[in-house]
Amino acid sequence: MLHIVSTPIGNLEDITVRAVRILKEVDYIAAEDTRHSGILLKKYEINTPMVSFHAHSGKYKVDKILDMLEKGKDVALISDAGTPGISDPGYVLISAVLEAGIEVSPVPGASALLSALVGSGMPMDKFLYLGFLPLKKGRQTLFKNLKDEKRTIIFYESPRRLVKTLHQIQDFLGEVEVVVARELTKIHEEYVRGKVSGVLGKLEERGEVKGEVVVLIRNKE
Ligand code: SAM
C-alpha cells in the first residue's frame, strides 16, 4: 500500500515514532526532493531507497510508483515538509493510487496550516483553508467573495508577496484581524498578530520578510 507519511515543517524532532518505523519498513520512499529529505532520513538512520516524486514528475513517474505497488511493494510518500498532499504534489499520486484500486493509509503529523491555526488565537472550530492564492487571475474576485466569510480564513503565501497581499486584504476586506505565522517550529518562529494596518506597519518596518509564512484572517463580526 501507499503510506502517506507526515514529516517535520522545520524542527526535525517533529516526526512520530510510527512515521520513523514505517519509513524504515517500506520498500521505497517517494520524496519530493530526495536531497532535502536525505537530511531527515540520515538523522533517523533510515536507509530505505528513495525515488523522486515532485510537481513536474508527470505520468511516467506516477506509473513507475504504481508499478511498484502493483508488484506488492510498500511505498511511503513524503513531501519536503508537513503532510503530503496539502498544497504539494502528493495529491496527484494519492488519487492515481486510489483509482488503481490500491489502498492508502495516512501516518499523521505536522502540517503548517494546523500549527499556524492553533497558535493564532483565532477561532478554530470552523475554518476555510485556501492553499496558495491565485497569483493574478481570480485574486480580486476571491478577496471580494471573502467579505462575508465568518470562518477563520487560512492560506499559504510567499514571503516576497506577503506585504502586497496584506495591502490587498486591507483594500478589499477593510481593517480585519490578521495573523502572520512565520517560521513555525524553527529558531525564528513568530506570530505577528493584530489589525491588518498594525501588522503591515510591523512588517514594512523590517524592509524584507524572510522565511515561510501562513496568513490567517478573521472578518469583523
Ligand atoms: N504540505 C505542507 C503542509 O502540510 O503544511 C505544505 C507545503 S507548501 C508547498 C509550503 C508552504 O507551507 C510554505 O510556502 C508556507 O506557506 C507553509 N509552511 C511550510 N512550513 C512552514 C513553517 N515552518 N512555518 C510557516 N509556514 C510554513
CATH superfamily of the largest domain: Tetrapyrrole methylase, C-terminal domain
How many strands in all? 10
Averaging pLDDT over every residue, what do you get?
A: 96
Q: What coarse outline follows from CA principal-axis ratios?
A: elongated
Bound molecule types: S-adenosylmethionine
CATH architecture of the largest domain: 2-Layer Sandwich
Approximately how much beta-strand content do the residues carry? 15-25%
Write the element-wise H/E pattern from the N-terminal end onward.
EHEHEHEHEHEHEHEEHE
Placed side by side, the strands forming the largest sheet appear as 3-2-4-1-5
N-end to C-end Cα span: 46 Å
User: What is the total number of structural domains?
Assistant: 2
Q: How many H/I helices? A: 8
SSE topology:
Layout: E1 2-5, H1 17-25, E2 28-31, H2 34-43, E3 50-52, H3 58-70, E4 75-78, H4 90-99, E5 104-107, H5 112-120, E6 127-132, H6 139-145, E7 152-157, H7 162-173, E8 177-182, E9 190-195, H8 196-206, E10 213-218
Parallel strand pairs: 1-4, 1-5, 2-3, 2-4, 6-7
Antiparallel strand pairs: 7-10, 8-9, 8-10
Helix pairs in contact: 3-4, 7-8
